[in-house]
Design a protein that fits this description.
Layout: H1 2-35, E1 40-48, E2 54-62, H2 73-83, H3 86-101, E3 108-112, H4 115-119, H5 123-134, E4 141-146, H6 147-152, H7 154-166, E5 170-176, H8 183-189, E6 193-196, H9 208-223, E7 227-230, H10 236-244, E8 249-251, H11 261-272
Parallel strand pairs: 2-3, 3-4, 4-5, 5-6, 6-7, 7-8
Antiparallel strand pairs: 1-2, 1-8
Helix pairs in contact: 1-2, 3-5
The structure holds ligand C2E and calcium ion (3 copies).
The site of one calcium ion has 4 residues, from loops.
Length: 274
């Protein structure tokens, strides 16, 4: 018993140590990647649920990580959040996207913001600075935030959202339906958009509970005067149900995967043509 217990502890330590080293290695690579501007920004179209015209693009970071090879975006974000590198990384994405999307007059730009960035007292000033530098119009910018931060720091979140709204920037609640945002908070935050998470969408239309969850979320958000975006739309059948249920905008592989700027430009140009 003693032996096996000792053995287990040793195995656990080794795994822990390996994880820590792996993280340190990636942290260092992220630092180099930032210095060498090795990160890419991809764009995924968001379409009007009725006309299917592209109304916005969501900026999503991609890391080709040379020479080691590409690495999963979610993992990059998680590590960057732990190390604090999310601050320069987030600003890099915003700056790059504002420059690349600048001249596409009718298309909004949606950028993801981590809770740590939103919590940073200098964040509003940094955003303003990027907008000034790039001449990107604030009314075309939307920031996406997830529920976690709202629950832990509701007063700060409300204050920051108000400040952004005063600047003309809109705020979307991301991944709605995965957390526990109360109806009361949803109402007082002042979001312009609510993005319904892709996980319940997979069950449409056959799974009754998933369908009820999605239509309930749409009705709730619309009742509070917010526009509703569904993400992760992969099939025409889902798109039809969503638009019939009152969803305003759709996003997902059905309309386009996240893609490099040259590809999304071709798409936007085609979609806006008469
Ligand atoms: P998210 O904000 O919820 O972004 C949507 C994710 O769903 C993206 O994953 C996108 O590629 C994927 N997706 C879009 N349509 C479909 C679909 O039809 N089916 C399926 N299965 N997936 C779809 P991605 O690009 O890997 O990003 C993962 C997460 O990483 C994002 O989730 C976001 O939370 C975070 N992230 C990405 N870029 C940034 C960034 O610049 N800053 C911050 N703070 N977070 C970022
Ligand atoms: Ca998002
Ligand atoms: Ca999302
Ligand atoms: Ca997400």
């Amino acid at each position: 018993v003693k032996m096996s217990g000792k053995g287990e502890i040793a195995v656990y330590d080794a795994a822990f140590e390996q994880g820590r080293l792996h993280r340190l290695e990636i942290e260092q690579q992220i630092g180099e990647g930032l210095a060498k501007r090795q990160f890419d920004v991809f764009y995924q179209p968001v379409v009007d649920a009725n006309t299917r015209a592209i109304v916005a693009v969501e900026a999503l970071i991609r890391w080709p990580r040379r020479p080691a090879g590409p690495i999963d975006t979610q993992q990059v974000i998680e590590i960057a959040e732990l190390t604090g590198q999310i601050h320069p990384l987030g600003l890099f994405v915003l700056d790059r996207a504002c420059r690349e999307i600048l001249s596409w007059d009718n298309v909004k730009l949606s950028v993801n913001v981590s809770p740590a960035q939103f919590r940073d007292p200098g964040f509003e000033r940094q955003i303003l600075h990027v907008l000034e530098q790039t001449k990107f119009p604030p009314h075309r910018l939307q920031l996406e935030i997830t529920e976690g931060y709202l629950l832990t720091h509701p007063e700060n979140a409300i204050r920051a959202i108000k400040a952004f709204k005063a600047m003309g920037i809109s705020i979307a609640l991301d991944d709605f339906g995965t957390g526990f945002t109360s109806i009361h908070y949803l109402r007082s935050y002042g979001f312009s958009h609510v993005k319904i998470d892709k996980s319940p969408l997979a069950g449409l239309p056959h799974d009754k509970r998933a369908t009820l969850l999605v239509t309930g979320a749409i009705n709730l958000a619309r009742g509070l005067d917010m526009r509703v975006v569904a993400e992760g739309v992969e099939h025409e059948e889902q798109a039809a149900i969503l638009s019939a249920s009152g969803c305003d905008e759709l996003q997902g592989y059905l309309f386009g995967r996240p893609m490099p700027v040259s590809d999304i430009l071709t798409m936007v140009t085609a979609r806006l043509a008469p």
